[in-house]
Amino acid sequence: MRRWGGALAAAFVLACLAACSTDNSGQNPTATSLDHGDGSVSTAVQGEQLDKADAAGLESKLKATPGDLTAREKLVGYYFEAQATDIPKSLKPADVNADTIARDRHLLWLIQNAPGIDLLSSAPMGLVQPTPDTTGYVAARSAWLGQAGAKAPPRVKGNAGIFFAQTYDQRAFDLLTAAEAGDGQNPTWPGALGDLYSARTRTASPGSAAMTQASASAVDEMEKAWGLSGSANTDPRLSQIAKLAVVAREDDKAVQYATVLLNTFKPGPGQSPLAVGGPIHDGNMVLGQVALHKGDRAGAEHYLIKAGASPGSPTLDRYGPNFSLARDLLVAGSRDVVLKYCDEVAKFWSDPKLAAWRAAITAGKIPDFGDNLWN
């Protein structure tokens, strides 16, 4: 089983990884849609279909022709698939990280010799991560520092920016901003910047000017990425934009995108419950937050219950819903409505902490909802 959501060091999802989300549309983009002209991502995806003998043949070929980009791109895909595939532990190689290390060896060569290819901005497959291959990561970091100088082409700066975004390095903001300025039709750069600003929103003090500014910047960049990607109403970015617009106090914009979500994803013939559940929850939650901003507590309660009536989704079922509106209504005194919401979401989310939160709410407390204020 391929795991497109492989572990990243950062606690946020890079734009190109977020583009692979299936929570809204139920569809992953094709490899071609992640290429911007060079076909390297498509070639790597082809490499995922190789068997061990095929990979060994390509490795042997590279000894004679080390500059064969196609072979290296295919091997990146092969080793990515190999390290991400569920197999019995008894069949794992002695070094469980051997496939990752092999992939990173080819990625390092590509950074050094072809730093502008699309594959190097395609996370997680084309990204050397801080763990488990620490040595490979240090080498990749050094290589990117050498490649991403002031005179580097925009796509090289952008690829380097996505690499540095893993550790929230300020270089990521600078490099991605430069890439966006020089390669303005590529949605990857504003998408990655949007995710960086979103991460900054999470670390800012609640209600602070820094939080408002970071969320507003995230909305601006994500809107650019959405527009450059075709402005599809099924784009997973729309939920992010709507939720961040609320944090930025851009209520009109939040209502705009929440309404698009609810008009696009409706239960009924031709719509999978797994595809509509996330947008139904997020759209209603956002409308409820806007209602509360306007002093309409009854309206906010109404939307919270509608959000809780979502049929769930792969993301909601695993990580749980966003409790921002529920938290705000608890502060406003709407305990019974929030308890009902907890009962509704328990139908698709079975995490034990939900029961603990419900018990705390019943006791008149406001739980610490942690990451569920940002899901």
Q: Count of helical segments? A: 18
Helix content: 55-70%
> Looking at the structure, what is the overall shape?
elongated
| Unreliable sequence segments | 1-30
Return Rg in Å: 22 Å
Q: Ends: how far apart? A: 25 Å
Structural class: mainly alpha
Succession of helices and strands? HHHHHHHHHHHHHHHHHH
Give the DSSP E fraction (strand runs of 2 or more residues): under 5%
Round the mean pLDDT to the nearest integer and report it: 89
**Most strands sheet:** none
Query: How many beta strands in the DSSP annotation?
Result: 0
Summed up, what is this model?
The chain is an all-alpha fold and 375 residues long. The protein is 61% helix and 0% strand. The chain has a domain of 111 residues.
Structural overview:
The chain has a domain at 265-375. The longest helix is centred in the last third of the chain and has 21 residues, at 273-293. 45% of the residues are buried. 61% of the residues lie in helices and 0% in strands. With 375 residues, the chain is an all-alpha fold.
Characteristic terms for this protein:
375 residues; mainly alpha; 0% strand
SSE order and pairing:
Elements: H1 15-18, H2 40-47, H3 52-64, H4 69-84, H5 98-113, H6 134-147, H7 154-165, H8 170-182, H9 188-203, H10 209-228, H11 237-247, H12 251-264, H13 273-293, H14 297-308, H15 314-319, H16 324-332, H17 335-345, H18 352-362
